[in-house]
């Protein structure tokens, strides 16, 4: 085939912008405009609220973001690696909480280790089935939720689980006015962020989440990467379970509460895409804090929990749409 | 056998294509295409890659508007704005991108999207009509109530053709319908096409398989450089003459000078590699230093050899040894770890990570070597990126941009470059290494491959581009229908390769 | 009913699960110690009425290759709207609820179709928002429904085992079966779920169908919620995630695949009946709570295993290995 034919074929197959143009420069995208308008509005709204600008309030915001935030940071890795979401989070936290309280007599450290091992094991198995066998995460985690919830019900016999020792109380203490959970949240965020950005496993998570087929063809260990992401998520869920147990001093089957959806909401508000391949732990921390701030402002202004939830839903929707439009635009 | 179809009426012309032209971004893909197809005629359309065939087909089926020229159907000049508009005007297209859904039954697929089908199902009537059409195509054994997923790829192709028939088209265009079919299935397709023509419809048959074209079609139009070179009745043509028309005045070039085997370097030994349904017994010993090129069209098995070696065919069997160590080629992770580097033929969906930067893509497969204990060292990464970009010829200032923003040629350079310069890669396998790449990019990639071979890597490519095969291939192996047809070392020319790829084994 | 008709997974699954559950139901006296009464069947069908419209709603979106997480929110919204507005005229309350559900569904469908956003995050966000809305509407507590006549009417026994609620639910399934089975919509819906690209190429109006699908799921969920509100004489602003999960299980048992392209309303009917009967069996035999959960886990686990591409590849690999060994 002649060179002319090749040029023609290349031109006919060409798609995407020409080398010289770049979609990032030039006219601002609708996303940027929306951001430029809404963020200052939000800030003004917050700042003009009574009692918002106080140290106590700042502490309250961080504290209320902590429990969900820890799990959400873990869930970020799972979403980045392309496994979307887990619908078994609440049940996992509940079971870990029960295990933690039931083994208190072995000492705080041991109970903590057992709790972590429990969470990691439960989630790593799910990650293995999803990573190596390509199982659908939704159906699998629903099944896992039933299994884990059933195990929790059986273990507790329907009654609350009470601890035999009080070692966990140290986890409820505060330091510099902030509960320990907040520091754990920050630590977990740092570790997760570092893992995603600076380790081979983290990088591979982004690649697998972005395009699983390409990752497989390139010989990347898709299964192993998925397991690592889920194991980390399991550890984070376990930490939340431990804190919930300490806070409530007893564990019932409903301890997990709305953790499943709250964690997903925080990740989505942080701007991580559900399709995978994008996002970061810092973004999720931001998402958890933004949700917390929003609830706080509404609370201070006298709105009910219902309104807070409603606004939270609208916020998630807005961010999801914005993130999707932005990524679709840059790829065109 | 060049028997024309029976019952044709040469009087009234069904389809006339006059002066079609189309350019992309200023580069003309089709300069001037003109031909006529009579009612009841099977008209072949041939041309090598890039001659403009697919663009002409897209214009005829309504997917692309022509820049110039017009299409006349039964005396009426038509403007086809979309595939649906084309359907309404009576043009049906059967192409590689199947529009049949595996989850539905055969009958449901035939009814899907058909504008003439009523809202409420008339099951008995529809089944009877489908049965009639299937029988008319010789497909008595396919039941309309079968799920399409139960049929082979060839049978699905036949259902796609049946679907076109049920839409009462005046013109049926078939684009490479037999590329992935077995001989038996192809025979069914031909029989179906002959029956279509016998009813008075016009058929345009686009194919690389020249012997099939000559056997089936009444006349053939050859495209070259975006222009129609001429229309000839097939009874006046032989395969070799057809090839000459397609390639122009220069029928072939000698391969590059004989190259001595590199002493150092690796060797790949393949024995009885088999992929059920795609590749029969393939054996080859490929030492480093010489580039081995597998020449074969879609469905020939050339691509499957490389994919099987890379671990993407879990059902492959055989023995593969690289540097005296067996390659576990049923798993892509383990195959990669044993030193196989693979570049697929679809960089967009199975190669690059389009949303990520060029830098990320370049180091995607060597992350463990950029640090220690699983941690990536930014400094080492930057160095690796910079040196790779230089090696591959990518502009340094653009390394931070998403790779989707690069031109096709640069994207391919990044894709190929990803496998270079790695001490743990011993064999480089590339499927269509310069697909969708312009002249300059192609030369650059060829240079990279030659350097890799000289540096001691085993380099194997699969390609359908004659120029590329002749330029790069120190050893050229032609393939068709999952089998090796011929082997050339320095004595290949374009027409011989073409013949092997399209005609296959003599007498087959 | 020959063997080939039954061999398709979207028929085999619901048929076999319903048969097994019916057999277990018939055998439950062995464990409970007392014979089956008409009341047991009535209870089971009441359970079916509670879950049915929700399962049909989510099932239809799954057939189209999507997943509507918000059905539970629309369910709660329908309940709240009906209870709030239907005190004097129950029918108007139902109408208002249905209108609200349709509006929510249409809005979601528009977003998902036009902007080509995956359905899960959008419906999740809508679910959270709807949860907030119902809280705001009710002030966080359950809202009571004063019209006791309507409450008694929806649950009165009809032919011994039915009630207007269960009959209405059954009618909805049959209507859906008629529409999807007897018109082109059925195959177009499955095409969209099975292979969206090919459907577009074939000329199916994908966007329009998606909007219609989500509008339908919103409408059905709201209707279910409205009837439930009348039945309980109160509207719960937060029924939790459990109804959604049970509806998804019913859909999966009914032969619908999460990948899309497979499933029929009759299959969904069988799946929902299976779940309802299972709940009734647990109630009559007084099995411990966790046993149902473990049973569901096992059932879903099997479905997951069957549908994993990786497992199929493993089987293919083993088979190829064995063939190679022989040759």
Oligomer: heterotrimer
Question: How far do the termini of chain B sit from each other?
Answer: 14 Å
Mean pLDDT of chain A: 86
Helix content of chain B: 25-40%
The strand order across the widest sheet of chain B is 6-7-8-3-9-10
Helix segment tally of chain B: 17
Give the ordered list of helices and strands of chain A.
Answer: HHHHHHEEHHHHHHH
β-sheet strand percentage of chain B = 25-35%
Estimate the global geometry of chain A from the Cα principal axes: globular
Report the sheet with the most strands of chain A, covering strand number, pairing sense and barrel closure.
Answer: 2 strands, antiparallel
CATH architecture title of chain A: Orthogonal Bundle
CATH class categorisation of chain A: Mainly Alpha
Low-confidence blocks of residues of chain B: 1-11, 250-257
Put simply, the count of helices of chain A is 13
**Radius of gyration of chain A, rounded?**
22 Å
State the share of residues found in helices of chain A, binned by percent: over 70%
Please report the total strand number of chain A as a whole number: 2
Form type of chain B: globular
Description of the molecule:
The complex is a heterotrimer of chains A (332), B (508) and C (327). Chain A has a single domain (54-331), classed as Orthogonal Bundle (ABC transporter involved in vitamin B12 uptake, BtuC), CATH 1.10.3470. Chain A is mainly alpha-helical and 332 residues long. Chain A has a two-stranded antiparallel sheet. In chain A, 71% of the residues lie in helices and 1% in strands. With 508 residues, chain B is α/β, with parallel strands linked by helices. Chain B contains 17 helices and 22 strands. Chain B has helices spanning 53-60, 83-89, 106-111, 123-136, 153-166, 183-198, 210-216, 239-247, 302-309, 332-337, 347-350, 358-363, 378-392, 408-417, 439-454, 466-472, 494-503; strands at 13-24, 27-38, 42-46, 68-73, 76-78, 91-94, 171-175, 202-206, 219-224, 227-233, 267-275, 279-287, 291-295, 317-322, 325-326, 340-343, 371-372, 375-376, 427-431, 458-463, 475-480, 483-488. In chain B, a hairpin with a 2-residue loop joins strand 17 (371-372) and strand 18 (375-376). Chain B is globular, with a radius of gyration of 25 Å. Residues 1-11 and 250-257 of chain B have low confidence and may be disordered. Chain C has two domains: 2-287, ABC transporter involved in vitamin B12 uptake, BtuC; 292-327. Chain C is 78% helix and 1% strand. Chain C is built from 16 helices and two strands. The longest helix of chain C is centred in the C-terminal third of the chain and has 27 residues, at 206-232. The two termini of chain C are 40 Å apart. At the A-B interface, helix 1, helix 8, helix 9 and helix 13 of A face strand 2, helix 10, strand 18, helix 14 and helix 15 of B.
């Amino acid at each position: 085939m002649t060179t002319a034919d090749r040029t023609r074929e290349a031109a006919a197959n060409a798609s995407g912008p020409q080398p010289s143009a770049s979609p990032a420069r030039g006219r601002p995208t609708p996303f940027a405009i929306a951001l430029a308008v809404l963020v200052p509005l939000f800030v003004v709204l917050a700042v003009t609220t009574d009692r918002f600008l106080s140290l106590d309030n700042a502490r309250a915001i961080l504290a209320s973001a902590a429990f969900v935030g820890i799990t959400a940071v873990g869930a970020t890795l799972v979403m980045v690696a392309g496994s979307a979401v887990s619908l078994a989070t609440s049940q996992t936290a509940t079971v870990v909480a029960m295990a933690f309280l039931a083994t208190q007599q072995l000492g705080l450290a041991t109970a903590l280790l057992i709790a972590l091992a429990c969470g990691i094991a439960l989630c790593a198995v799910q990650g293995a089935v999803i990573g190596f066998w390509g199982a659908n995460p939704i159906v699998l985690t629903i099944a896992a939720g039933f299994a884990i919830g059933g195990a929790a019900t059986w273990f507790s016999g329907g009654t609350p689980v009470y601890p035999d020792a009080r070692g966990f109380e140290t986890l409820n203490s505060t330091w510099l006015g902030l509960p320990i959970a907040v520091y754990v949240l920050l630590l977990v965020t740092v570790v997760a962020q570092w893992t995603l950005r600076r380790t081979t496993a983290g990088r591979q998570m982004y690649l697998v989440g972005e395009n699983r087929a390409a990752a497989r063809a390139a010989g990347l260990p898709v299964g192993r990467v998925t397991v690592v992401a889920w194991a980390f998520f399991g550890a984070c869920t376990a930490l939340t379970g431990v804190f919930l147990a300490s806070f409530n001093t007893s564990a019932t089957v409903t301890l997990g509460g709305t953790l499943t959806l709250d964690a997903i909401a925080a990740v989505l508000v942080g701007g991580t895409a559900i399709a995978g391949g994008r996002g970061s732990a810092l973004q999720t921390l931001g998402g958890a804090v933004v949700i917390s701030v929003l609830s706080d402002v509404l609370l201070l202004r006298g709105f009910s929990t219902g309104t807070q939830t409603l606004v939270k839903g609208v916020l998630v929707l807005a961010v999801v749409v914005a993130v999707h439009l932005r990524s679709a635009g840059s790829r065109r | 056998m060049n028997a024309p179809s029976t019952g044709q009426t040469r009087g009234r012309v069904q389809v006339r294509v006059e002066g079609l032209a189309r350019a992309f971004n200023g580069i003309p893909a089709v300069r001037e295409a003109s031909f006529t197809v009579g009612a009841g005629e099977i008209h072949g359309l041939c041309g090598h890659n890039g001659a403009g065939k697919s663009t002409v087909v897209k214009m005829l089926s309504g997917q692309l508007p022509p820049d110039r020229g017009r299409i006349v159907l039964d005396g009426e000049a038509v403007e086809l704005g979309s595939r649906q508009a084309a359907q309404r005007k009576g043009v049906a297209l059967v192409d590689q991108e199947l529009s049949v859904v595996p989850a539905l039954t055969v009958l449901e697929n035939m009814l899907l999207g058909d504008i003439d089908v009523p809202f409420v199902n008339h099951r008995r009537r529809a089944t009877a009509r489908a049965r009639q059409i299937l029988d008319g195509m010789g497909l008595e054994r396919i039941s309309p109530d079968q799920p399409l997923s139960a049929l082979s790829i060839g049978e699905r192709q036949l259902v796609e053709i049946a679907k076109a028939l049920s839409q009462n088209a005046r013109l049926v265009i078939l684009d490479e319908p037999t590329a992935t079919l077995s001989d038996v299935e192809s025979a069914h397709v031909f029989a179906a096409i002959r029956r279509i023509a016998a009813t008075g419809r016009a058929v345009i048959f686009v194919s690389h398989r020249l012997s099939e074209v000559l056997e089936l079609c009444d006349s053939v139009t050859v495209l070259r450089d975006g222009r129609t070179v001429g229309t000839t009745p097939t009874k006046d043509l032989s395969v070799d003459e057809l090839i000459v028309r397609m390639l122009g005045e220069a029928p072939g070039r000698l391969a590059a000078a004989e190259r001595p085997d590199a002493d150092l370097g690796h060797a790949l030994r393949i024995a009885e590699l088999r992929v059920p349904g795609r590749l029969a017994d393939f054996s080859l010993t490929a030492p480093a230093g010489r580039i081995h090129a597998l020449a074969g069209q879609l469905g020939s098995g050339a691509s499957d050899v490389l994919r099987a070696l890379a671990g993407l065919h879990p059902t492959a069997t055989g023995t593969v040894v690289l540097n005296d160590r067996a390659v576990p080629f049923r798993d892509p992770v383990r195959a990669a770890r044993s030193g196989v580097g693979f570049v697929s033929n679809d960089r967009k969906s199975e190669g690059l990570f389009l949303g990520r930067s060029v830098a990320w893509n370049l180091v995607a497969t060597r992350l463990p070597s950029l640090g220690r204990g699983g941690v990536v060292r930014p400094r080492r990464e930057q160095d690796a990126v910079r040196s790779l970009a230089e090696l591959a010829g990518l502009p340094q200032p653009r390394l931070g941009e998403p790779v989707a923003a690069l031109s096709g040629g640069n994207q391919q350079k990044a894709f190929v470059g990803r496998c270079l310069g790695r001490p743990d890669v011993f064999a480089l396998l590339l499927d269509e290494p310069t697909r969708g790449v312009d002249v300059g990019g192609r030369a650059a990639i060829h240079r990279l491959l030659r350097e890799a071979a000289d540096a001691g890597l085993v380099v194997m490519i699969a390609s359908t581009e004659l120029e590329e095969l002749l330029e790069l291939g120190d050893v050229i192996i032609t393939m068709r229908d999952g089998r090796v047809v011929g082997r050339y070392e320095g004595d290949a020319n374009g027409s011989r390769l073409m013949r092997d790829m399209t005609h296959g084994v003599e007498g087959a | 009913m020959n063997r080939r008709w039954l061999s398709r997974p979207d028929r085999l699954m619901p048929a076999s699960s319903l048969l097994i559950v019916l057999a277990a139901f018939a055998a439950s006296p062995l464990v409970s110690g007392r014979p089956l009464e008409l009341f047991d069947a009535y209870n089971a069908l009441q359970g079916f009425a509670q879950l049915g419209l929700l399962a049909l709603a989510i099932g239809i979106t799954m057939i189209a290759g999507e997943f509507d997480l918000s059905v539970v929110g629309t369910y709660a919204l329908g309940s709240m709207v009906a209870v709030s507005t239907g005190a004097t005229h129950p029918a108007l309350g139902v109408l208002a609820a249905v209108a609200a559900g349709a509006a929510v569904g249409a809005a979601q469908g528009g977003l998902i179709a036009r902007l080509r956003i995956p359905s899960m995050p959008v419906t999740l966000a809508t679910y959270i928002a709807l949860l907030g809305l119902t809280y705001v509407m009710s002030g966080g507590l359950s809202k009571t429904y004063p019209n006791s006549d309507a409450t008694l009417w929806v649950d009165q026994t009809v032919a011994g085992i039915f009630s207007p609620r269960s009959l209405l639910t059954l009618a909805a399934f049959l209507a859906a079966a008629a529409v999807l089975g007897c018109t082109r919509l059925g195959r177009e819906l499955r095409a969209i779920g099975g292979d969206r690209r090919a459907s577009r190429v074939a000329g199916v109006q994908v966007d329009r169908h998606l909007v219609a699908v989500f509008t339908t799921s919103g409408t059905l969920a709201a209707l279910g919620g409205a009837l439930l509100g009348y039945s309980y004489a109160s509207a719960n602003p937060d029924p939790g995630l459990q109804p959604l999960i049970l509806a998804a299980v019913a859909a999966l048992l009914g032969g619908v695949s999460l990948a899309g392209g497979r499933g029929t309303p009759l299959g969904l009917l069988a799946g929902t009946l299976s779940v309802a009967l299972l709940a009734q069996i647990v109630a009559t035999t007084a099995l411990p709570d966790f046993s149902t959960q473990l049973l569901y886990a096992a059932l879903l686990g099997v479905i997951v295993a069957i549908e994993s591409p990786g497992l199929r590849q493993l089987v293919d690999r083993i088979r190829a290995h064995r063939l190679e060994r022989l040759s």
